[in-house]
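Quick start: load a record and inspect it. Here is small monomeric GTPase:
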Amino acid sequence: MRLIQNMTSIAESAPPPAPPRAIRMAVIGGSGVGKTALVVRFLTRRFIGDYERNAGNLYSREVQVDGEQVTIQVQDTPGVEMTDNAINLPDHVTCSIQWADAVVLVYSTTDRRSFDLIEQLHRQVARSGGANMPPVILLANKSDLLHLRRVDPQQGQLLASALGCSFYEVSASEDYSQVHQAFHRLCRQLAQQQQPPATPPPPPPATSSTEKRRSPLIPRPKSPNMQDLKRRFRQALSAKVRTVTSV
Ligand SMILES: Nc1nc2c(ncn2[C@@H]2O[C@H](COP(=O)(O)OP(=O)(O)OP(=O)(O)O)[C@@H](O)[C@H]2O)c(=O)[nH]1
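Running the structure step on this input writes:
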């Protein structure tokens, strides 16, 4: 009975399990390129044909990444427009770029203007990330609409290579596996980046040649223990008494 009580109190005092790690992604691109369709497809497997114009919804879902339970937060953003060769970046998009750990840039294969936006959007991400540039992937959506194609796959691939990011041509409406593969790869990339290093960092270099680092093989000098101190104290005292009595 007591054993059971003890076990219960141990179980009660155990710390609660840590919440799953969160991965934050922002999906950015021109208007109507299929940002919402892609996010919903990735998170729910479903393609829903019609959405209201996007005001910037945040989606959240727990998924398995390399065996680890991870919370993915995906920020859908309003479409970016271009006027007179300059992009008009809504505040929501700027904030989402700053917030995100990773960015998904999207254009539509049927919309040349959405493709032309990508370079400038990437520049914004780079400017915002500074030295900590977040990982980016480039998605060319609506690949099923062959008769309406305005951007060749090679052009997308070339642009992605120039920007140093991965490239996927996908169709939110026709192919779940492509969409999943693209987003999932980004999740893995992020999860690996966020892992603490597997090996301990190397020791700092010695500041001068005369300064020697303590080798783990050289034993530390022992500090005297209490027994030892008491013994030495008694010895000193009896020696003193002997000298006093001998005077
Ligand atoms: N054929 C086809 N249509 C798609 C695909 N993806 C999205 N669509 C359609 O494209 C339209 C726009 O899709 P959305 O997901 O609303 O695009 P968005 O980029 O979120 O749009 P905004 O919020 O207005 O910027 C919708 O009618 C979708 O059904 C696709 O892969 N293939």
